[in-house]
Design goal:
By secondary structure, the chain is α/β, with parallel strands linked by helices. The chain folds into two domains: 206 residues, 3-Layer(aba) Sandwich (Rossmann fold), CATH 3.40.50.1170; 117 residues, Rossmann fold, CATH 3.40.50. It is built from nine helices and 20 strands. The two termini are 42 Å apart.
Length: 343
Amino acid sequence: MTTKPKIFILYTGGTIGMVKDYNSNVLVPFDFDQIQERIPELKQLNCIIASESFETPIDSSNMNVDYFREMVQIIEDHYEVFDGFVILTGSDTMSYTSSVVSFMIENLQKPIIFTGSQLPIGDLRTDAKENLITAIQIASSQRNGIPMIREVGLYFEYKLYRANRTTKINANNFEAFDSMNYPILVESGVQLDFNSKFINIHSYNSDPPIFRKDLNTNIAILKLFPGITESTIRAIIMNEHVEAVVLESFGSGNAPTSEWFINVIKESILNGKIIVNVSQCIGGGVVQGKYDTSIRLKRIGVLSAGDMTTEAAVAKLMYLLTKNLSKKDFKKYFKKSLRGEIS
């Protein structure tokens, strides 16, 4: 007799868990203990479902490292009992949250699928039901008792992406996310189409996962724009509390060649700051040295993030900054694919 997969749903907050109180016409969180009564279609899935909510659900704009740790602690507490996890969060910061969680768990051998919705679950035209039902179905998909997905994914509008490859691209459309630099892992149509070639960066093994809850948030994002001033750049990267800066550059990693700009970046690196170069474009990536406008950044020690997203670069820095690595090792591990975040 085959045992049904056990799936754990964690609701942290966000639009997907809201229903309208028709007396007050206000959106209020619904009780996830009654999820199968609210969505009876879940009973058709070939899995056992349990759910839990944050004591106080949060808007995703308030997401922070304490909530990342709480999520990962809950996953750790239930990891041995359940075969897969579905995490419901607000979509606005979902790419950041899911990217960070991907780095917080080493040797992950079970699916952790993030999803949410653009409309509340009680809305007539909601996308919440399809996103939730399919995320659970993907999380419970197995072959010979082994999960089909063994990484952190993000499911939205018929597509499962590698979480740390995603960016939210639209605030209004149901198709809110994209993964420009990595293929879709699963596409939902009449059937679930698993893109096996691009799924699971590590082979299946029985070693236990390692849950890392230390994160360093002494990070800043500096987005370049034509006309940016030296005082603005200095205010950000010379901040005594900032240890690493995600430099969002133009195109394939290009930046001003003004002496003052190069000197400020060089000075910050000599003072121990880590500067990583991420493209402002949602597709493609940084190729330092392709043009004269980036070769000097490479020479003074700016690290190329390749085709990483800003969200993944932030997450990876939060993770690596806790490791007390030498400059050489930091460069090595930043440029290496740890969770499939970089090509």
